[in-house]
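Run: sequence + 6-O-phosphono-alpha-D-glucopyranose -> complex structure.
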Amino acid sequence: MCGIVAIASPRTNIVESLLDALTALEYRGYDSAGLALLSPRGLVRHRAVGKVKNLRDTLPALEAAPIGMAHTRWAVMGAATEANAHPQFDGETAVVHNGIIENVGELKSMLPDIIWESQTDTEVVVHLVSSFVRKERDLLAAIKSTVQLLKGTFALVILHKDFPDMLVATKRINPLSVGKSNTGDLFVTSDIAVIPVEQYIDLEDDDVCVMRKRVGEGDFFAEFYTFRHNKLEKIEKTWKDANQTATVTSIGDYKNFTIKEIHEQPNVIQKSINALNRGDYIPIAQEMMNKSAINIIACGSSFYAGLIGKYWLERFGRLLTNVEISSEFNYRYPVITKNSLTLFISQSGETLDTLKAMEVVRAEQGDFAVITNVLQSTMAKAATRHLLDLGAGPELSVVSTKAFTAQLAVLIGVVIQYLKFKDPRAADILQEDFERVPGLLSQVMGQNYHLPLIPNASSILYLGRGICYPIALEGALKLKETTYIHAEGYPGGEMKHGPIALIDARAVSVILAPHNELFNKIVSNAHEVIARGGHVVFFTDAAGNAEFTQRANSTAYVMPSSGPVSEAFVYSLGMQALAYDAAGGLGCDPDRPRNLAKSVTVE
Ligand code: G6P
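>> structure
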């Protein structure tokens, strides 16, 4: 949520590199963008509403500097206007900020003479730093005095006009990393995975990174301090090797990141199959053998992956599983039994609601494991028991596709490993079906899926039974995110208890109907829709298609035949493809849907 990047370089001009890096970070928020440069003209700032491209277009051609910072915003406090875009700047101090300053009212009352130019909480940080610099004449001391007053969460990068060769970064809760490239560029960023660096350091809470120009030389160096215990102490940090590949941030021959990432899924799933074969899931499965319940806590698509995990854990593992949305779990005084293991699932590993849920479980002394795609993330570092890697590679489309199916793959990998201890024969059958998934997904991708959009349709109902119910929920979410059309996932059996009232000639229902033990029951739902004049988009397989002979008012898509494990992947991909096609038809940008952000670091 909001992307930050700063660069200090031996080169004379980093503006293009800053804009390129900001574009790579755009998936974190894209309602406005800005940058500040310590240029030969002094500290200058430029901002624009909308995507980074708008900032690029408005930038004066001659703007050049060896040091600067940039921000792409997802509005929290204050609308998406130029005045609220970052950097916030008072003519002396410029600040980019991720997070929320909670005591902004109290802090503003300490600065009674300021005429506030924005509705952001960040502006108060700017004025505090400026006022402390005027008193203390020392930027680092001024930032320390400021940070001590802040309540809330933040990742901050700060420049001051009187310190022309210096950049300071610090954080609390929100992630911030420092990187260096082999060309001598130093970076600070909220999202190191998409920045082209050879080495990096993740900042801990209250760590401070100071970049300064080497005396007599053109290059910058990084020093580290901590504000912990209200002191300013120099600390040593160890650079780690980064394994970034340039292909990650490029769409190659694809039209956008969404379709690129959809196509990466067979390879991503194969990684979890390999992990299962290597025995990577043995430690968590052994621990599950000693537990009587599993709790899964997550948000968004990760929550739906968790629901699918519940169906598998209970059906195959006979292990009681509770799944819950993090933001609800956090404030309803949940019971965490001693004999349970909690799994936090998060693509980003930074979702604040899920981080808060970790605090709740920790306070109850519960054991927890983390399933994430970002091994440097806050959640990954907090895992008390097991850390399971989704291995999907950076997912740059805001709409989750490959990370979602990677979550399914890790969950079923864990379930199969658990069954290997309890019932090896059953585990073998499931594993055989799991190993078919990459091939089946490649077959699904060979087809086109089209959602008939009826003019004036008020909503699209997604219906499924059994494991296809949480897939219907995820399918409806995909459509909402990519097309802004209202869609709702429902258990097929529940339609008669309310949603059936919505069915008329304008209604479209997407029905997930693999030819499994629930086929006849979901077919009844299809008939109920058609009998009321509604249109059905029927996802089934060859056996289902042979039995579902109702052709009027229906469109059938024949998916490859799948088993009890592979069906979840096959039908999830079908839902992704349907939403992607609908977005294309409506001219919507699936990579950057309006109002959304990839990593949601506010409650
Ligand atoms: C945002 C994203 C969703 C994602 C959710 C949870 O809303 O747009 O795609 O599912 O956050 O994110 P997490 O990183 O915790 O999986």
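>> summary
The radius of gyration is 26 Å. The CA atoms of residues 272 and 348 lie 18 Å apart.
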